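FIELD: query
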Amino acid sequence: MSKIYLMSRDDYGADGMRSAVSEAFSRFGVDITSGERVLLKVNLVSGHDVARRVTTDPALVRAVASYVLSRGGVPMICDSPGIDNFRAAATKAGFMSVASELGIECSELVDPVDTTRGTDFHKIALSRKVLEADKVINLPKLKTHGQMYMTGGVKNLFGCVPGRLKAGWHYNVGLNREKFAGLLLDIYATVKPALTIIDGVIGQDGNGPTSGEPYNFGLIGASPDALTLDFWLCRMMGGSLDDYPLYRAAVSRGYSECKLDPADVEGDFDSEHRFEGVKFPKTRSMRLLPPLPFLERLMTSRPVHIPDRCIGCGRCEAVCAAHALKHENRKLHFDYSKCIRCYCCHEMCPVKAIEFKESALLSLMNRLGVRS
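FIELD: result
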């Protein structure tokens, strides 16, 4: 059996979504039994209109929930936004409408419970609802990512950490992206989603995961192995796996998923296809210097304010775990000596009023084409 199944889908038509979902479940033998509580982990990083392509498309969520219902299961649409009110964000993303239409639950991931892992992170608090679900179906969005290069199935599970606890983890791991990637690997190993179905019909490139531009990838990807799926999609997007912190962290742990084999991929979407012109955020020059905090700051882009776009909502200051910025009269004052370059301020800004500015060293390296 293949590890990954890639399906061509040019739009979010109901028939196409239903057939993709049915094929994904049957291809990998994921059975739903009567009465099973099945948590659908969507991507609801923050509240955005569907047209922005920030969140999992409701058409895919509807198709998965309907499939679970048809098998006698009890689907629950769930996530934990970084700062937004859950109900308002889920309404804007179209999830509340799906839940109302199908008569199912749509709720926030709260009630943190400590889980114990035998890795670098011995205690990670995840939502009780995730841990007590009979199955988790992971429904990420295919996007680039300012901090982590790209986001897919594994990164989507960071939303299983309830609410503001996410900011604490950003602060704890600081500037070290590979350490944060290790945290994501531990969460993935704990949650163990039965199936990941990624929404790549229209994703994002550029300064994702919330301020990028829509990109028509034209695919739905499915796998019980979200890690291998992410690595394949990164390569298909034209990304360098060596620049992908999740891949580097997996290599350092000796994960077999790092060895990509074309025989592991099936479906009507060519796994050797390379998407043209996908823009990745240039936030860091990789691996030329040792990962010391003061060197990381020299090599990493910093967030900057675009005052003309600012609406004065204050979300950037509220989400900053490092307390590295102050918001006064629509002006942001950054303390870059404290800033950990997690870019949560950029991610949570609803109007793209925070962008990236290359450090002088990073700008020079990019101009010279210097890589590790």
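FIELD: remark
The mean pLDDT is 91.
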